[in-house]
Amino acid sequence: MEAVLNGTDALMAITNRPEIAFLGGSGSWLEDQNGKRYLDFIQGWAVNCLGHCPREITKAIADQARQLINPSPAFYNQPMIELANLLTDNSVFDRVFFANTGAEANEGAIKLARKWGRLNKDGAFEIITFGHSFHGRTLATMSASGKDGWDVMYAPQVPGFPKADFNDIDSVAALIGPKTVAVMLEPIQGEAGVIPADIDFLRALRTLTEQNQVLLIVDEVQTGMGRTGKLFAYEHSGIAPDIMTLAKGIGGGVPLAALLAKEEICCFEPGDQGGTYNGNPLMCAAGVAVMRCLLLSKFLPSVVAKGQYLSTRLQMLSDRHDLKGERGSGLLRALELHDNQGTDIARQALVRNPTGLLLNAPRPHLLRFMPALNVTEAEIDLMINILDSLLMSERN
Ligand SMILES: *Cc1c(COP(=O)(O)O)cnc(C)c1O
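^ inputs. structure came back:
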């Protein structure tokens, strides 16, 4: 079965991939070309919210593929309308534009805010974002992001994204001026290492933006779709943002994203925004299947319970190994290590036998956990036991 890895040189080397090709997946488990199994606590980067190949999604995709794959974005289709209504009925937003990736949804949010600024704020276009934030890999979303080194990687940047300090309301207030049209942030900075915005900070931000007639945009690409135990993370603070973006979990594994906005902000006119695949029925059918699962009365309470369980078990592990504690919300969590062993532990977890474990180290001193939202307590226990033995051998 090694033959599956012949020909990898035909791919651009955009990341250092190990000699693994996954051939199958089910729930929290993946299987590689040699039949080795891996417990997956990455789930396609917090994407497979219902785990690998859940019946609800495979059935929705197969049924839709037989019926209609793509009539063109110039026409309505049934899954597009159904998903838009599921999203607006269950959020503070009134209208949806579908896209394919988080970066594309954020590009749409930036365009919508800039158009709104042109119409309502004398051409104001600056969007205040935050240090260490992550909003995607297009030129504008890289410019909006606050990742170290990204300001020069593909210089020149798209202008208009001054950076404030996360959880520091004065740093935002200091940047607001006549050119400011919006503030954009992740309710929990994911790639930065699972750093939650304080609830008081979010509320102060809502007040500050309202006082200055500035839009508030939440990038919920990682935190949305039940990840934190609420359908959307902004709900924890009780604020109502003007614009929200979703991706990752919304497709349950397939490329789907959404830009949502309040009615009074929706100023796109025909011709302003588009994209060949926007609202295509195949992906939207997957999104409908995801939303229906998340809306089942017991689903989100179970995410809260599992998140609490994972939190408790990580804290015990931290105490036992003298680490620096855990943090996060729902099933988006991080464990802080005592030094930069994160990358090494993630690699050991991957190569161990007979069962591998997929873990992510977004920063060298940190491990991030983003399991399927329907992960079981037994799977959490198994992950903790594997991590416990890896931490033990790191010490020796
Ligand atoms: C992953 C992510 C993005 C980018 O999404 P893509 O689908 O990779 O373009 C944007 N914002 C946040 C908060 C993310 O976690």
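The mean pLDDT is 97. The CA atoms of residues 70 and 280 lie 6 Å apart.
thumbs up if we can close this ticket
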